[in-house]
Amino acid sequence: MIVERLREDGGISWMSAKRLRSPHLPQGAPTSPALANLCAFRLDLRLEGLAHVFGARYTRYADDLVFSGPESLRRQFRMLEIWVAQIAEAEGFSLNHEKTRCLPQHRQQRITGIVVNERANIAREDFDRLKACLHQSVLHGPSSQNREGHSDFRSHLLGRISWVAQLNPPRAQKLMKLFERIDWTA
Question: Which portions of the chain are predicted below pLDDT 50?
Answer without folding.
Answer: none
